[in-house]
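Input sequence (308 aa), recorded before submission:
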Amino acid sequence: MPGGFEKEIERARSASGDELNALIYHPAPVVLAALLDNPAFEEGKLLLLLARKDVPADVLENIGARKELMKSYAVKKALVFHAKAPRLVALRLLKDLYLMDLVQFALSTSVAAELKRYAEEQVVAKLPQLALGQKITLARRGPARVAGALVAEGHAQVLPIALNNPFLTEAQVLKALARDKVSTTVVQSLARHSKWSQSYHVRLALVRHPATPVSVVLGILPLLTVSDLRELAAPGIVAENLRKYLQAEVQRRMAASKKHASREMSVPYGESTPQTQDQERSEKKENGGKGKSGADRDGRPEESDDET
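Predicted structure, token format:
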């Protein structure tokens, strides 16, 4: 027998009471594996074993392979949530978790990215069958992909809550906007939202989306770069009735840029333009008459010799 633990292995297979409880904390993996063959090793004791953070992965895999042990939901959950749970075992058992346990698993910071994504996808797949109350709960505290899927659904009572979900990411918002059948309600809610309407990439997506009201688009255009405006103004990107506004904004920017450049060139070297003079006067007033020299590089007032 491996490791010279013959006696401990035999004891693990037949012990009971306090002796069995003590063996749950034995350091040898072969002894822990032998516990699984003990008829007295019932669910409560198995859960104590799974509560140990140092249980080796091969012991966990052994537990997951035993159908009689996997009949217990509590054991399944404890095994999936174990930090050392083998990847394939966790992927198989995630399908059996209840909805809110899946959510809890997906929000865990110690879970591998692949398993987190799979758990979120399992929740998203259940969304069509969920009651409104459950969707509201998920919108409030579900993980990013779940919140994004609820945004895309556009339910009037769920959408505002999902948009304020602390786990919702820009990537999921953009994914929702990119869907072919996203509702006008979703588009307009994003355009009005205090957080997401300030995102540059969301603004770009709103301009591209055919359901965005023209009034909203016109408010966004001055906030975009010229290069993005030119790209959006290319044929086939946005509706034809919007292209003229994009082209007009590009022309306005170019004209303003040329005007500014010519004004700068017309000012003799060493002199300042009226705008620069106004700025200098403003800075002098703000700094108590000291002008630009009234503050150090960090923006703090300079110390006098007496203060030093």
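Checked by second reader. The two ends are 79 Å apart (CA to CA).
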